[in-house]
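User: My collaborator sent over this chain with a note saying "see what the structure looks like." That's all I know about it. Can you take a look?
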Amino acid sequence: MKRAVSGLLLLLFLFLTSPVPSQSHTFPDFSDRKQLSSLLQSSALSCNIDPRALDLALRGYFNLKRQGLIKREGILTLIDFDKPSDSDRLYVINVETGTVIQSSLVAHGKGSGEVLATRFSNLPGSNESSLGFFLTETTYLGRNGYSLVLKGLDPGINDNAEMRSIVIHGAGYVSREYIRRNGHLGRSQGCPAISNENCQQVIDLIKDGSCLFIYHSEKDYATRSGVLNPGTASVNRRQGNPA
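Assistant: Without extra context I'll predict from the sequence alone. Here is the result:
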């Protein structure tokens, strides 16, 4: 009898202590996102990245990854439109190593403001930038040279991006020399335009299915985003909520 009880106890011990199969290495949970955010802080702080913007970017990235929507994993691009246009505010992050691998200037739409972007829209003809999460798609050669198509993933907030021809492209009004002459960057028709000098490098780094997030703190974006709050996506789509 004692031997049988001992055997049962041994089986129970082995069951309770056996590792549980996990997908955390593929789809990190909230605590893992926090750990990654902490890991990124030293690299992010050296680039002056806002921790709030970084945390939202990671939250959306892992939500999209969990849904299988990110085709090119490990790369996350963050554009922080809280910052003025005379500072670096585009950051390419290697999520796997927790490092910032590229930072650069980026212009906002002329309808969004002058030095600071304060207005955002999903509407054609607004000349305003859009907030939210995008998927990078294919490249092409157009009137602005080498360009990268962006697909808006937030219903009612940026899902008109392709119809509005919102793309990443190079522009002569995005440079340190332009800032020296004018005090700030020039502005686009809504596209996140970057410098001609590093246009191809940045586009080739993030093209073909990586995640891009455009952030601003004052638009109440986080509560309306279908990416950050998947249950609200259908509501935003029905109501056509503008950003």
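A starting point for your reply to your collaborator: The CA atoms of residues 111 and 126 lie 6 Å apart.
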